[in-house]
Amino acid sequence: MCHNYNTLQGRNLHHHRNTWETMIEDDKKSMMENIHGADCDLSEQIKSVTKDSHVRAENTELMLCYQRGQISLQQYKLLLCSLYEIYRALEEELDRNSAHPGVAPIYFPQELARLESVEKDLEFFYGQNWRERVIVPAATHRYAQRLRKIGKENPEFLVAHAYTRYLGDLSGGQVLGRITQKSLGLSSGEGLSFFSFPGVTSPNRFKQLYRSRMNSIELNREQREGVLEEAVRAFECNIEVFDDLQRMLSRKCVNEKETDVRHRHVADIRSHTPCEKHMQAEKIQSSDSDLSEQIKSVTKDSHVRAENTELMLSYQRGRISRQQYKLLLCSLYEIYRALEEELDRNSAHPGVAPIYFPQELARLESVEKDLEFFYGQNWRERIIVPAATHRYAQRLRKIGKENPEFLVAHAYNPLPG
């Protein structure tokens, strides 16, 4: 673990005062010169416009510790959590847009895909139930949101993120792999799958092929400018992720003991599941046929447990702290955003339409106002999304796509109340 935080804090604070939007504006002139310059290869243009951002990324506190061989197990595990979320978003969008003319030339899932490798490493460090223990920091969440947004609106921009991430992994990432193995005393490649590319026999030749395919993408002037801007943004996103992870560790916001307690709590709750399923089946057959009454009946025990969690008991006793409430608002924001987006998207579905009351019930705008009050206008950059909240939102989006009628259960009673 590095101890030069105060020395580098000023440098990192300077970065935070210069958001990616400001950096993009400052680099516009340089981008235009590159676009009209003699060398029109997209790969060279990206390399040129991201030069300064690349240097800043390498000089974040987390990366400096890494380069000095001072990476800790906790740092690496948190980094893997972020890499999982980033590559899941990137590769899902690349898969979805694999036939797009701006994506197809650089689509190499067999050679480059990292998601499965990250999952193996997470399982090695956290165990088989690693999905219940991953933490998604705010900056990582924003990065993943950005990838999904451009995947829907501007798929050709994905090339900037794919180039930045994959070629970085094939270059400096290999050095970091060796440092990680030595620093953490890992043997036989366990926990290091992320750094292995079995589908790439020669990294240098493959990088040449990748750049050649990338340069073959046909882009008009506006699209090319957009890709270059997105490349700068990609580095800024990574810088924010690195700084966010380091701040979490510096403030001791994350520790293994708390994670284990949360894990055991989840395991205790899930241990009731088989028995509850049997009871639910009996209640459904014996209770009144009204769906609302059946839901009330089968969730009675779960409702009691929810009301008796430590947080809810503190709430009922009037002992809720400002920090607790702010964190609760962060979770409510993520939950209601997922729920209401899925309700909106499925508003005409016969299983959703009868209970669709956006004017009367929608909570998202209200939660956003409260977050702005407590965190300020830049609240979106400061919210924290706990792992359990993230899983809840993922579940809502999954059923919104596969079983929209299930949304009625969450809309009826998403939280104790």
TrEMBL record:
- GO CC annotation: endoplasmic reticulum
Alphabetized, the UniProt keywords read: Endoplasmic reticulum, Heme, Iron, Metal-binding, Oxidoreductase
GO BP annotation list: heme catabolic process; heme oxidation; response to oxidative stress
Q: Mention any Pfam family matching this sequence.
A: Heme_oxygenase
Key word Heme present in the record? yes
Q: Which InterPro entries match?
A: Haem_Oase, Haem_Oase-like, Haem_Oase-like_multi-hlx, Haem_oxygenase_CS
Q: Where in the cell is it found?
A: Endoplasmic reticulum
Cross-referenced Gene3D superfamilies, in alphabetical order?
Answer: Heme oxygenase-like (1.20.910.10)
| Top-rank taxon, per record | Eukaryota
MF term (GO), any: heme oxygenase (decyclizing) activity
The EC code for this enzyme is 1.14.14.18
Query: Quick one: where is this thing mainly located?
Result: endoplasmic reticulum
Q: Which family does it belong to?
A: Belongs to the heme oxygenase family.
Protein name as it appears in the record: heme oxygenase (biliverdin-producing)
